[in-house]
Amino acid sequence: MTTVHAVVPDGIDDPARPSGGNTYDRRVLDGLRVAGWTVHEHPVAGHWPRPDSTALAGLAAVVSEIPTDAVLLVDGLVASCSADVFVEEARRPRLVVLVHLPLEVADPAAAPEEGRVLRSAAAVLATSDWTRRRLTDTYALADDRVHVAHPGVDAAPLAPGTPPGSSLLCVGAVSPLKGQTDLADALGRVADLPWHCVLAGALDVDPDCVADVRGRLASADVSQRVSLVGPLGRHALQRAYAAADLVVVPSRAETYGMVVTEALARGLPVVATCVGGIPEALGANGADVPGLLVAADGTEPLAAALRQWLADADLRSRLRSRAAARRATLSPWSRTVADVARVLERVSRD
Q1: Which are the contacts of 62, defined by CB distance < 8 A and separation ≥ 6?
Q2: Angle, CA of 291, 293 and 295, to the nearest 5°
Q3: What is the mean pLDDT of residues 61-67?
Q4: In this predicted model, what pLDDT tens digit does every residue of 226-265 receive, in sequence order?
Q5: Of the candidates 113, 74, 120, which has an alpha carbon nearest to the alpha carbon of residue 97?
Q6: Of 184, 193, 190, 243, whose CA–CA distance to 219 is shortest?
Q7: Domains along the chain?
Q8: Which residue in 27, 61, 77, 113 has the most C-beta neighbors within 10 A?
Q9: How far is CA 332 from CA 242, 325, 329, in A?
Q10: What pLDDT score was predicted for residue 107?
Q11: 3-state class of 187 per DSSP?
């Protein structure tokens, strides 16, 4: 069987709401089509993962129309908060849940519902080894039911960089989980050094967090050195990467960190918090790490890493060389698609 029904949030292609999860879903579904699969997409409206009764009713109506024994791939943002829909239906279509971020990481209260859904699925797809371990440990899932399909990355030209390394870039919706408040404080602590930072990401996900970031920058008197540019389209984001010297990922939770590999694809070193799957994306298994990993326990570690980068030309040179070397080892999206397809084929046969 090479037919799959896919339930995704209805904002998957909204340029005002770019996210790693939306990008992953789109690249996988389009890649399956290129590989010869018949893909039926079912976008569902709602504020996922906090849907109201109307959204859940709409989702239930969509799922009820999926043919019996069809392979049903559902974005975890939708599936993991909809146990009453999917647990009841799981034995009719062949349910595969694609987990980008376990809900219990962002909202521990969601764990019981998420666990019910994942235990009822024929298979679970995770986007990193860290996520796989988290899911099997948290929900006692059998090892052979949870599979990994790492995000791919497109080849990109090397960013030229500048000798002082003073152009910093942070990509991600401004929100507590992405850690821009910590970055704002850290930038205040290196105000004595030359730098400029671009924060590229949605500003409407958490307006209170955006106001907090702006307030912290103003208190540190560095507002004029930080540009909050909102979400960037593909070409504008490419230009932002090309103009950067260093990518900063201050996340408090991250299952993989596609921004990390997008930076490395351009030979850009990364300063990032050591959370979730970020070390995995960075390639931190050996000695030649193409960046600096810091503890996600406040401002000091992040500020110290930024100071190291900005003040040490030899360090910048070493990290740039390591990033260029890591660039050659990154996997394309075709590998991701093949990994997902193998799981879907297995489920269709079982």
Answers
A1: 7, 42, 44
A2: 165
A3: 94
A4: 999 999 999 999 999 999 999 999 999 999 999 999 999 9
A5: 74
A6: 184
A7: 3-152+331-349 (3.40.50.2000), 167-327 (3.40.50.2000)
A8: 77
A9: 20, 16, 10
A10: 81
A11: helix
